[in-house]
Amino acid sequence: MDAASLYKSLDEPDKADHLWRYTPWKRVHPSGDLSEIPVTVAPKLTLSCLDDNVALVGISVEEGIVGAEVLPESDEVTSSFIRAAAGDSVYTLRAENNFVASSPIVLDIDTGDSPCALHLALDIGRHCEFELITQISGAAPWTGVLRSGRIGDGSILNDVVIGHTDSGTLLRVDSIAIGRDAQVKAGTVSSGSERTKADLRYKMGETGGHLNVLGSILSASKMHLDHHVEIHHDAPETFSRLDWHSACGGNSRTVGTGMLRVAKGARGADAGQLFHNLLLSEKAEADSIPELEVSEHDVVGCGHGTANGPVDEEQMFYLESRGFDTSEARDALIAAFLNSTLIEMGSDTLHHWLTEHLQDELNDLKA
Amino acid sequence: MAAKEARDAVGEYKAGWHDPENATIRFDFGLSEQVVRDISAIKNEPEWMTEIRVKAYHHFENRPMPTWGNMSLLKNIDFDKVCYFLRSGEGTEDDWDDVPEAIRNTFDKLGIPEAEQKWLSGVTAQYESEAVYHSIREDLEQQGVIFLDMDSGLREYPEIVKKWFCSVVPYQDNKFSALNTAVWSGGSFIYVPKGVHVEMPVQAYFRINAKNMGQFERTLIIADEGSSIHYVEGCTAPTYSTDSLHSAVVELIALPGSHIRYSTVQNWSTNVYNLVTKRGIAHKNAKIEWVDGNIGSRLTMKYPAVILKGEGSHAEVISVAYSGKGQHQDAGAKIHHLASNTTSKILSKSISKDGGRGSYRGLVSVSPKAENCKLNVVCDALILDENSRSDTYPTMEVANPTARCEHEASVSKVSDDQLFYLMSRGHAEEEALAMIVNGFFEPFTRELPMEYAVELNKLMALEMEGSIG
């Protein structure tokens, strides 16, 4: 069945399902008419390296998709919708076996100013070692990005996605399998679109996989940023951590929902998730649902936690006593809060690039 | 406590016997508007109550089943194969000697009269649909404390009941609150006057005896300003191969400065579906505590809730759940912070064994106008074997920036270090496991009256038997 037929055969998602509880499908559909699959344009993709002196050999973006099936664990409605809307806008980011890059690789996705959809397959070979920054920018009123694929055995990948479209709605779906003994840091930096619905799913289906999912989310004005992260531990000796920091100001709302699912047979699984929310204004709202389903008793440990709170008064007092004015102290604490996950996303070079990006966003927020 | 000692003390599911049915009134299986009207007519209720029942019945009929929880078990419930009303006695007695002998023997075996003499302020014993025994200490009665079964409460204090009935849990709340409102029978009605402290707990004991029985008690507790009360309920049923349904509604109203503690040790047999709605409203500086133990039943879906409506009010929910073979305990808590300076605490502990499934499902919310709220949620789960499962589904909705909210949960197995330590001190492995489990549940048992705590520890030791090897 093709993607459009599959989408049309599915029922409207139920709000009882927490994936849709705070951001119903109707709110992120381009027109609100759920039967409609819009005509979209393909975004412009540019692959480069932060260090201009590094040649892009062994990594490429090619038209078309080979393999990179969407995981069965993924939500069918969103994945089939983006595939249908993307049409021929399908690409594969391929890293050959043993590809190593000393400087972060940047994939720019420029959405333009019309509704835009993309299916990007990740085909990361064995024993690769590099950092990938995927930057989604532009002025499209609606953007759909589906990333599916597999991180090859033994690869070390820091994979950071930055969503800072000027406005509109961003629907992002990740459906990624982690190979045997692969070590992946999956970072999300989100601060741009008016409305974001991200559904990020990872399958730890092979022994020894190691995954760190990190989020640094900044919302302001009337933004509505909803991120769902699902990690499936299906194989023994797999490790995952989720650390998600959301700073929420203005009239905005952030939603963080997580699901850790440890299947029977995933002996020695070690899984944890933490959601931290910093509320910056009276009308901001932050919701967290970190869920846990454990069907294997022989686990190292499975846990989750959430913490919500305002900017700490004692920390404010400390900084003010050291000469910061109130606004500076507050900004410093917000930046530090968001930085605590940014710093974990990759190398110093990557971190430096990200903090510069974040500072711009904080300045925008202040303005 | 050693497992053998526990078995000697309590036997196998000790409440699993049944008496011959000796009904004075027994309705046919199935539910209709006429059944609802007949229940109301038998009880000679005021018209307003009949009308609420009928409205609730129609709501129940039109309301779909929940699409969450354990849907595969929920769909097994056949509402047409449930008896919605069964009367076994001639009325509610205040002397055990006047209770029919077979029923009295049942409660003797359960130890209720003995407990009443030793440590209770009052007792209601419900058998099938209605209370068969009721008493309250004279001195409390003189202080104006009202403790009646709900049917008598409606007869004797219709104005109070009318004011508060459905005020905390409206029949439109969910399918099972609608069902309960339509066919409720029995339960407790308590009013504690201003400033009165009921020092010793009052207890209600609910027993299902008949096959395919539905028990739908309704409990309403109103603690007036500055008063306090501790209510304890226990429940058992015989083990049958056919299913029974228990769907209660409990409404608590804690007026300013009052304190209600509601303790439950649920030990239904594993053919009972236990689908209960419990909710309280705490006014200014009031405190509501739910102490909730779920040991039995096939499926429990129960989420004691507190609405913190008044400034400075406080809520606590301490719950434990044991899920054995074929059981699913889907329990949790809900707390809504609607007023400023309110605080709450949830502690949930569960053990899954022999293929059982334990789920924590909770919701805490802070409304935009509730300043300086603090809340803390802790869920711990132990999985004892490879066939069992544990889930946590917590939801946290925070709409005020001054709120401080924390949630943490962990799922683990019994630590090998702890077992090794206890065994190195001379305990057999099974004893050591029982001790660890009792220690795991200790934050719950220490909140129970001592007699209940001892009984619960025995039960848990028994359930742990055979866990090793």
TrEMBL record, chain B:
**Domain of life from the UniProt record:** Archaea
Boundaries of every SUF system FeS cluster assembly SufBD N-terminal domain copy? 141-203
Q: What is the residue range of the signal peptide feature?
A: none
Q: Which InterPro entries match?
A: Fe-S_cluster_assembly_SufBD, SUF_FeS_clus_asmbl_SufB, SUF_FeS_clus_asmbl_SufBD_core, SUF_FeS_clus_asmbl_SufBD_sf, SufBD_N
Instruction: Tell me the ranges covered by the SUF system FeS cluster assembly SufBD core domain, including all copies.
Output: 206-440
GO terms for biological process, alphabetical = iron-sulfur cluster assembly
Extract the NCBIfam families matched here. sufB
Family the entry assigns? Belongs to the iron-sulfur cluster assembly SufBD family.
Protein name according to UniProt: Iron-regulated ABC transporter membrane component (SufB)
Q: What organism is listed for this UniProt entry? A: uncultured marine group II/III euryarchaeote AD1000_88_D12
Q: Which gene encodes it?
A: sufB
